[in-house]
Amino acid sequence: MNRKAVGITITQHILKQQRENPQATGAFTTLLTELIVAAKVISREVNKAGLVDILGSTGEINIQDEQVQKLDVFANRVIIERMQHIGQLCCMGSEEVADLIEIPSQYPKGNYILLFDPLDGSSNIDVNVSIGTIFSIYKRKNEGNQSEVLLDEVLQPGIEQVAAGYFIYGSSTIMVYTTGNGTGVHGFTLYPSVGEFLLSHENIRIPEKGKIYSVNEGNYQYWDERTRALVDYFKEKDKSSGRPYTSRYVGSLVADFHRNLLKGGIFMYPADNKDPKKPHGKLRLMLEANPLAMVVKEAGGYASDGQGPILEIDPKELHQRIPLFIGSKQDVEFAEAFLSGKAP
Ligand code: P6P
Questions:
Q1: Could you give the C-alpha distances from 342 to 95, 236, 245, 333, 338, in angstroms and in order?
Q2: pTM over 0.90
Q3: Residue-wise pLDDT tens digits, 62-76
Q4: Is 251 near ligand 1, meaning CB less than 6 Å away?
């Protein structure tokens, strides 16, 4: 019986990209490989969360003013503890930690900056909805500098990312990432029996135009008039433009984004006046919008804050929030034109 070959592992894929990059030193390969180990550990805990006392919240409130889930804390700790000793990072930034995370002095420093949301969508853990880890990798501006990293070295526009992607812990665990510059977007599915991520979605391209809109319509009363009109537009009946679109909203960014990346459509988290502390919406520029904007751009899509490209925004704070319109290029460009008054 001819046994099916295992297929291309993520390690083989990363090493192939390293060989194709003359400047590569192997540092990035080491970084991504260790991050993948952290994701495997998180995936194992997420998938057995219902069986052990790791469900529910810790009773604390995090920097985002949100209930901290036990798995959030676990995922954050796994990534920090695994990544801090590999000698490739000069600092880290986490959605769960207010300030930059320094590399302890006993470990060598590197030139990469790792920003991450350890477990996005964690409020869905207890109801078995897909959740995810989002990551964004930058290079330190003055490479080789062993001095402490200053925040303004980290606050780079998304266009400067050297890599970005996410892990989605759902019916299966999938890793999607890109290193930009035309290298494409690739998806790898974790085979627990092999313990490896195997190439399952080679060169993902998002449809130019979709039929899905994703937004929390419960916030309708908190949006401005233009935003309400935009969402109403996607619900109007007009065969020539394929409307009404289908509404799909999981309430877990990685799940909503991943579905639209594969099927096409637009995800929106507009600014709202629901919480005066969050006038620019709920999602974070550095830790959610930028990495997903890099992925979607490399897959042929687009990401906007409603006025212009997410990737060109000059960040002011590590936890800065931003309105997000992301997905199929035609749909997001239309939304941006509509919101900035340049379309009907
Ligand atoms: P809302 C989950 O808490 C999250 O950060 C994202 O994963 C998700 O897209 C968004 O918030 C959902 O927010 O206000 O619709 O519940």
A1: 34, 19, 22, 10, 6
A2: yes
A3: 666 666 668 889 999
A4: yes
